[in-house]
Specification:
two-stranded antiparallel sheet, seven-stranded mixed sheet, 11 strands, about 5% strand, disordered C terminus, STAS_dom, mainly alpha
Length: about 700
Amino acid sequence: MEEVNLVTPPALERRARRRQPAVSVLKSKLKKSVTCSVPRVRSALTGFFPVVRWLPKYKLREYIWGDLMSGVIVGIILVPQAIAYCLLAGVKPIHGLYTSFYANIIYFLMGTSRHVSVGIFSLMSLMVGQVVYKEMFLAGFDLNEDSPASGPDVVNATLGNNLTAGKLHTVELMGLQCGKECYSISIAASLTFLVGVYQVLMAAFRLGFVSVYLSAPMLDGFATGASFTILTVQAKYLLGLKIPRHQGYGTVVVTWFNIFANIHQTNMCDLITSAISIFVLVAGKEIQERYKDRLKIPLPTELIVVAGATLASHFGELNSNYGSSVSGHIPTGFSPPQVPSFSLMSRLILDAIPLAVISFAFTVSLSEMFAKKNGYTVRPNQEMLAIGFCNIIPSFFHCFTTSAALAKTMVKDSTGCQTQISSLVSALVVLLVLLFFAPCFYALQKCVLACIIIVSLRGALRKFRDVPAKWRASRTDATVWLVTMSATALISVELGLVVGIFFSMFCIIFETQNPKVSLLGRASGSDLYEDLDEYENLMPPPRVQVFRFQAPLYYANKDSFLKSLYKAVGVEPFLELTKRRKAEKKAKKMSSKMVVIGLGLVQRELAFHTIVLDCSAIPFIDSTGTGTFKGLVSEFKEIGVSVLLAHCNTSVIDALQKGQFFGKDDRDMSSLLFHTVHMAVLHASSASAEGKSEDCLV
């Protein structure tokens, strides 16, 4: 047999950490924050406007051509998308152009990412549209987009009654009579202002950690479910159907039901135009993907389709001859700024929260992803400030909520973008359209805009093909994706986000309540201990059970910990103690001759004398976990089994010390806690050998 000697553990002393009083820490921070000096003011300004820091160092000859190329290309892509996504947001096309212009200018001044393209994003447009249509429905407007219209101030009709006593329905807002178009952009602007305020407050209070609760599978499923909702909402335009957008839950189901119920009213002109547009757009995308190594710049497929469709609609007079819905008049120039309606904000406080969270989550994650790819760093808190002001300031100029957009960011990265000068160039392209070319899109059919939106969803909808691979890689992640996607598509976008967050957190809690547990064995000739079920050629230490629990130990899983431990070692202390007490009572009733046999039953030995808890996979414990350890030591001690702890991290040790697990002044620490499993096993074997020697002497 291997000779066992008691090994003295190495002398490891914890560093004495002196914590300063909270009051003094608070005073020093306040003093530092209110101190004003020229260098501090300069640092604050350059931090708030990073452009002041990097623009003087701009390498003109090296960077300018890449920035010009990427800026022009993104601007060309941006114009048709800005007009198209207004269908989702429920506002007129001009507001999409305003939003794209102002967002690019502000992010140029305040953003820290060189490659992110901030502007209109389909998901944000959908969520804004949901709120806009809901509020317009409650205000009594007719949601049919082709209802009678008038000028910019007094437009549209009530639910069920387009005309009441010869007057179109209006709502009083800030002392003025506001029609359908006016009311829709007022809602969108007020919502956008609130979103920006939330984002700035989150940056001020360092609440960026909220994004950690948005797991990648959850965000992926949310985007896919929202894409399916976007496709559903736009499907009516492909067929030229006059169906109001459904309000409430189950938009996807109700909308498809309405589409099939009214499919006999399909406008053949819109249907043919949609088929041709989708064919050209998809063909362009496929050519782009197949020959992306040979093509130096992306194909401007959307612009070609928009230009061709506009010319065909204008000269073919498709609106008057075939009743095809068109974009209508898009004015040139800028509207005067207007303060968002504070009377509307009281109804939009809750609606703005999911938009704020999703907007900053996508922006920060995209900026960090492309910064890592291109070898520089970004400041997440400044990114939150930047996207917040990209919403606050434009809300005074008739704009709606913005975010970083993946597709346009990838285009910028692939076309040689070097700095945010490219955003300035994209804004100038949009400015040219606003000043000179906006009225040219009057005859552009809405079905063409819907085709642009739907084809842009190809990437998100292709995620369905990845479900089997996700399932093989991680069933938990695949389940989170499926649940979030289903809730977003079948219930609503807002509830889908909530369901996704809570379900992903529930999955984490469920995994900590049902973690992997194992008994460990020793590898021959070493002090390495590993799972007996997972590895071969391991030997369990004689009469010592080594147990590993791979999860934090806290109030929610302490019962799971105890059950798994009892099952693994094959002994439950309370039941074992009950058996012994029953045997003792039975022995007392027997004759004195049988008492000896009874005592033998009472004092029978178990297959082990020590349990070593390998705590290397326990990141933390709470007070309930400490109490569980205390009860475990006490219960097993009553049946003659010692419980030792090994490989605890410092946070677990601190929690045990605060809970006085090691007794007063930690007097039992050296006999209960060991740095490695092997040291604990050697100590247990030595202690058992000494105990047997004492019994023999007795």
